[in-house]
Fold these 4 entries.
Entry 1:
Amino acid sequence: MNPFSLLKPINYFCPKSTIVLVAENKIYQPEYLLQQAKKNHDSTKKYLLKLKNKNPRNLDGLFHQLHSQVFKKTNCLHCANCCKSLGPRITSKDRERISKALRMKESDFIDTYLKLDEDHDYVFKTMPCPFLASDNYCLVYENRPKACREYPHTDAPKMIKHLTLALKNSETCPAVFLILEELKLMLPLGKK
């Protein structure tokens, strides 16, 4: 039986009743998401460059509205692509907080879980994240790193500065992909 024959569509509503239908079970597949993000990459990149040049005053409001709408219908536990493929920077406050929650000395936490990357930042030694459970729950969720709490950054202030990051994150996070696709529909920029 074809697993995609029973897909349930998700309706994402924009002002003026614009609807984007996405197959829920399919968008959470990393391969499908990457395929769709790559397929749209050039047009999305051009769109975001135009958007940056226009710098609309309501951009933060639009991103925050879309972030809220999309995450109301997105279950991160179906996906966890970010936890499986992105290595967050672990700050000193993160190390202190997580090691305390694990009842470990900070030095033991560093030795067990972390390494220094090429930028001399601490990151996890292994990916997927060592705290990602088999059901995609985070074992240190209440104490997770700042980078994880803020991901995918689509509700950050001054989104005009984060457009390149949003494009990159659209290859990992279904929500970012959907936010950017909805943004193109809500704020068309023409063919110039």
Entry 2:
Amino acid sequence: MTEIRIYIAGSDSLIEKSDKILDSVSDRYRQKYNELKMEQQRSGALAAALLLRFFAGIGAEDEVLCNEYGKPYLPGKPEFSISHSDDFAVLAVSGDQPVGVDIERIGRVTPRVIRKVSHMDAASSSELDLALEWTRVEARLKLKGTGFYADPLKYEGKSLFYSSCAYDGHCLTCATASEHTVTVDRVDFKIEEDSISYTTENIIGKDIQT
């Protein structure tokens, strides 16, 4: 059975220490940071880069590659997937088995949006159910490695395995092609003049299958 470790980090205070962070992360995320215009997106990129450095072993010396659809990967490193929403960044790490992960704020996804990507009965669905369905769609497309280059209405991923949970007003889902167990850790980074450190807190244990 595949073991999935998910790490979630807040990003709202990282922008103030961007120079220190960018010196320690992969070039792909330095470039991404410089390309982004919105402060919240830039903060999310910083948090994602730190999660990759500390929990997937991808640092400043590593050249992150992308497939033809833009999915990042690095030969010789664990399989991983990244997602951002508001002030959160999420990393899922799964060893040698591909994984897809997504996070979305509950209340943001509308029935109109869901109808474009899913066959669910959106009109009678709650805000939580809409967010859950959206994250399942995104997670399976990330697992597939295509993102929305694939038509989500044609690729339903019925044989996949999902785990989902709610956290701080957001819905989080990961998808794999085989059965898995999941742990979710909250990560808090501490950026100092001469070091970057972190603490973790387990917020959800193994039994979150849906």
Entry 3:
Amino acid sequence: MTDATVNQPRAPLNLRGTRFKPLTWETLTPAQLAMVDSVMSGKRGSMQGPYNVLLRSPELGNLAQHFGAHTRFNSSLPPRLNELAILMVARFWRCEFVWWAHRQIAIDNGLPAGLVALVLGGRTPADLPVELAVPEAAVFAFCHELIETRRVGDATYAALVAQFGEAGVVDLMGTMSYYTLVSMSLNVDQYRLPAGEHPSFGDADRDTAN
């Protein structure tokens, strides 16, 4: 963070946390300030989500958020399918905030609402409608198999490579990896949904503050 930036009025951090006390501008170390500046100057422009946790280890946190920005905004997969992977990771970890934050983004990017409902219901590739587009089916099957078995069979791997190449396989795994870290961070923190929002999985706290 430059001296000029420090002298400018600062936007509210709006950090939230349960186990991890919300940090403030006054309590941030130089390394934490550098991470905040990097996040706030990027495409996210917000410190919601895992950052209050990741700031506890700012060097790792800054590397992680740069990795996350790449997986979200620069993946070789179409945004709707990247969001499908994020939702499947959120469903596996039962991470309410990630699901809440990305469900509408996925739909706005063209992911069918019916497919989102199948993910929420924990359905398997065998439950997918026959008319589902091939790219959606390939990403769903890959994510489901990798999450559930920690392995991917030859047919599932070949189907994804046929759609997106080897780079697509790596980019998809990168997205799943980052949002696994995000989900773990938020679940360990017991991070709550914003006030007035209701859990999708039925077992998470929400922020009851006015």
Entry 4:
Amino acid sequence: MINKNKFKLSESYTKYKMPNLNKQKYRTFREYLREEYQGPYAATDILIRYDNGRKNGIVLIERKFPPLGLALPGGMAEYLTLEDNAIKEAREETGLDITLDSPNKPLCVFSEPTQDPRAFIASIAYTGEGKGILKPQENEDAKSARVFTLEEIASLLDKPIWAFPDHHRRILRIYLNEFGGKNGN
């Protein structure tokens, strides 16, 4: 028997109203999702280590579409594995060839319902290394992509310059705490 006192529900769960799951209302599960599902939707983010010959650090993008500001490369999960989605999004937004550090073990997952202003989006964050020329594809979300040293990132974390201030800053803080002195950074 499960000890109910052992588990504590988050505040966001206790405020959530369960959808009507009347089986007669929808013919298929897909129809239910289309009409009732409010998330979380999945997105991948990636911390890319990159050395351009002049600077060694992490790649951040400046978004060209709202929400504007600095961000980790990433995007909504498409019909791919999450690890392949992280690589695809990173390649589109940075132009780099990406090798994930641990494809089956993300750095972290954040699923706060309000962390993204657009919708309830859960973020699965990976780490990896980028090779090649740093140049975002023109038809993607990245206006530009630049390398920031770990010291520069640490100095920017409390500034109001982030497109996704809740979870991207938390992801970067986890990375800095766990890997700040490793991998040549």
